[in-house]
Amino acid sequence: NVRVIVFRGETFSDVADKLVPVLNRGIASSSGARKADMLAHFGWANFLRWRDGKLELNPEQQYRQALESDARNPYAHAFWGHWMLWTRREASLQDAREHFSAALASGRARDSVRRMQLSAIETLGREGEEEFLRLVNEMRKNNEKIDVRTSSRMYGIYRSACLPRNQDRLAQVDAALPITEHLATFRALFYGDDFDKWRARERDACLAVLLEAAGQREEALQVWVTLRQGFSPADREWRDRAEAAIKRLSP
């Protein structure tokens, strides 16, 4: 969980360099899962130092050794999957999925694995959005906790895809999941009491877009009609959008 403030001259190595000797002593005096945990974190320390420019370091060696000590080790699998996506980008997505699946199947450190998985996929930017949507949908179906940061990231993806000028992006988002899954996740994440009421209009408009994509035209029409009733003369852009949707969807 280390964080650094670059403009203050802080580096990841400031922390990692202090921990590596401790990890090395622990590795030498332990075995099995405990040894694997420390080997995996030694590899993570090397990744952090690699980020600081020590490119001769390669954490894969420690991740491989950790799995030799404990084939189901969640940290080694999760860190290795993260490393693949960080260095080989979307070309490594299938291999990374296998590592994260193995980490989750271990039954240990599930929250840590999920945080690492989400973080790794976010590094892909637009290229990782479909995978991000699939992952959060899976978490929703498993009743796993979805934190505020992840929910906010999801909202940003949907909000952008629902804009009138982003039809290509909407098609890309739609392709990630069955539309019924999109609707279920969208409602689960953004219709709670904690949702920002100032975003309710754009949220409902996005719901209407998803409903129309699902073929639920009457439901989409009703959302637009309700939205239209709440617009003032100053809401010209929103009013025009609602009226165009009402005209398109009306029998």
* Helical percentage: over 70%
Q: What is the CA-based Rg, rounded?
A: 23 Å
Q: Largest sheet at a glance?
A: none
Counting copies of identical and different chains, the oligomeric state is: single chain
Poorly predicted spans: none
Please report which band the strand proportion falls in: under 5%, 5-15%, 15-25%, 25-35%, 35-45% or over 45%.
Answer: under 5%
Distance between the termini: 55 Å
Produce a short descriptive summary:
This protein has 251 residues and is mainly alpha-helical. The chain is 71% helix and 0% strand.
Describe this structure in words.
- The chain is 71% helix and 0% strand.
- α7 crosses α9 (167-176).
- The protein is mainly α and 251 residues long.
- The chain contains 13 helices and no strands.
Present the secondary structure layout:
Elements: H1 12-28, H2 32-51, H3 60-69, H4 74-88, H5 93-105, H6 110-122, H7 129-141, H8 148-161, H9 167-176, H10 179-190, H11 200-213, H12 217-229, H13 236-249
